[in-house]
Amino acid sequence: MMMRMRRVALWKCGTLFRAGESKRRCITTLYSAGDGYLGCLGHGDWADRSSLEPLVDLEKRPVHIGVVAKAVTIGAGWAHSAAVLPQRGSAVVWGRSLDPPMSALMLARWSQYSRWAPRFANALSMALDLGNHISLVPSRVAWPVATRVVSVYCGGGVTVAVDAKGKAFSLGCNDKGQCGVGEVSHAVAAFRAVVGIDAPVVSVALGFRHGLACDRKGRVWAWGKNDNGQVGSSELDGASQKETLERSTPTTLTVPRAKAVAAGLSHSACLTQEGHLFVWGKMRSEKFKVAKTSKVFGEQVGPAVLHYDALEPRQVIFPKNTPPLVAIAASNFHTAALDANGDVWAIGPEKLSRHMVLEPRRLVGTDPSSSGWTIRSGVENIALFDDTNVYKVVLHAGTCIAETLIDIPEHKTVRDVAIGWKHSLVLLDDLEKRPEEEEEETTARDDVDGEKKNPPPLSGRR
Fold first, then answer.
1. What is the pLDDT of residues 365-389, one digit of tens each?
2. What is the number of domains present in the chain?
């Protein structure tokens, strides 16, 4: 166990070495893959990438994060992406960072009929400068304070960055108050402080049009659109889901002391310091009925009872003897948790049938490497990864399984993953070569080039 913990600690600090070898630095590089018509891949064009490629800057050079001594954070939203450059302590953003998520849905619909339609719309927007602020490569964003940026999060057209003092700042679409700046407007074009939160922020999650934050005191704050109770308000009547509430100022929720939050399309979740999972919002749909009496969220649900949205946080009941949870994640419709034994659990709709699985299912059939599992929230999928593999969490036929999400190149180590709507970001570590290794490679290349220029004579040739 000690050896395993030692290895994980070394991996996280950006240095790997073998017995008898001198230390090597890990060079961390940011890669992306997916659909390119939303402009959020960061390669300087609108082309799709079926496999991972390194991002480029304004001069078409790969974006190397460099030698990293601390955690690097990346974010992927519906139509934009973001990352923190630790050496400079600044945030970079690219894609459609101010657009409402509905515009991404519209472009996707157009792409089904013609692959040229979204490209024409993007070119027109950039040519006329219609306020979209589209950037095809990572671009630095003005930071309003002198402190460094330490983490960044993306959602439906919203970006939240947190500085070294735990202060949260946001920019993006604000038509439902999802920026949390105390007012509703078309967009917040530059980073502004998220209002109301009076303690350092330790965790942030952004949904389709709402946001969550957890502070150092263990309080959960919520803001934005609340049509399905995702902001945790009991003001909505459970029989009438037509009323829409918009909260532009974060307010606290009644939950036990929390340490992390997660957000989906229209639902929310938090992890308490005691290791319990609470969820609220649109966890259930009135399209589905309970086939038999079962205990869900600690309540007895009878046959043929329509599911209703959870307007206030409710604890998810896990099987007896399940150890405390240590991490949670969410996607549009799913919620996952990692327990102290390294097991992964999930709830949400099943693949294909869309039947709602409300009792947590444990992941089966896939084992992690020695470093163990890490889970990350995503728009389309929940990412599950170890050193060399990236999977997505899937519920199928009543069980929780892992399916390959991204193919990782050989000799690379996965540092972090961010899953957007139509794209993925991956931070990969690669060992820095020693001078003697670089000299050997250079010599080998020169030998090959020399053989090509001066091929040896063929045997028997006159």
1. 888 877 789 999 999 999 999 999 9
2. 1
* Domain-embedded: residue 76: yes
Contact 394, 32 (CB under 8 A): no
Choice among 19-23, 196-200, 324-328 with the minimum mean pLDDT? 19-23
User: For the ranges 240-254, 290-304, 327-341, 417-431, which has the lowest average pLDDT?
Assistant: 290-304
The residues facing 279 across adjacent strands are 269, 314
Q: What is the pTM of this model?
A: 0.80
Q: Give whole-number Cα distances, 147 to 198, 217, 260, in Å.
A: 17, 22, 23
Please give the structure tokens belonging to residue 393.
């969490």
In a domain, 341, yes or no: yes
Residues 6+ apart with CB under 8 A from 451: none
User: pLDDT (tens digit, 9 = 90+) per residue, 154-209?
Assistant: 999 999 999 999 999 999 999 999 999 999 998 999 999 999 999 999 999 999 99
Which helix (H) or strand (E) segment holds residue 107: the answer is helix 101-113
How many degrees, rounded to 5, is the angle at CA 55 between CA 115 and CA 74?
Answer: 100
Cα separation, 328 vs 324, in Å, equals: 12
Q: Which domain holds residue 229?
A: 2-24+71-406
**CATH number, domain with residue 223:** 2.130.10.30
Residue 50 lies in a domain: no
Q: How far is CA 287 from CA 180, 229, 245, 264, 284, in A?
A: 32, 18, 23, 19, 9
Rounded distance between C-alpha atoms, residue 6 and residue 26, angstroms: 17
Give bridge partners of residue 278 from the DSSP assignment: 270, 315
Phi and psi based region of residue 119 (left: phi greater than 0; alpha: psi -120 to 50; beta: remaining): alpha
